[in-house]
Write a structure and sequence with these properties.
The protein has 83 residues and is mainly α. It has helices at 3-14, 18-36, 41-48, 53-68.
């Protein structure tokens, strides 16, 4: 089966592309870890497959806005100042 055929059939069955499904799983896992552990956001981002905290935050925020049209409360709106 070609990659294109797989992606098309996957999307037909699951309702989203394989890439989108992977992102959804990463975001769900990151949310779970943020809610249930004291691990730093950077560590969680790497653990679930995002390269950087900002990528995880941006992806999570984008997904959440699509679902509820607001930024998740557990994500910082801007980085905390370093003094």
């Amino acid at each position: 089966m070609s990659l294109r055929t797989f992606a098309r059939r996957f999307t037909e069955k699951v309702g989203m592309s394989p890439g989108r499904q992977l992102i959804e799983q990463r975001v769900d896992r990151a949310r779970h870890l943020l809610e249930t552990t004291d691990q730093p956001v950077d560590e969680i981002a790497g653990r679930v497959g995002f390269r950087r905290r900002h990528t995880a935050a941006r992806t999570t925020a984008r997904r959440h806005r699509r679902l509820t049209a607001r930024l998740p409360a557990y994500l910082p709106r801007r980085p905390a100042p370093t003094h």
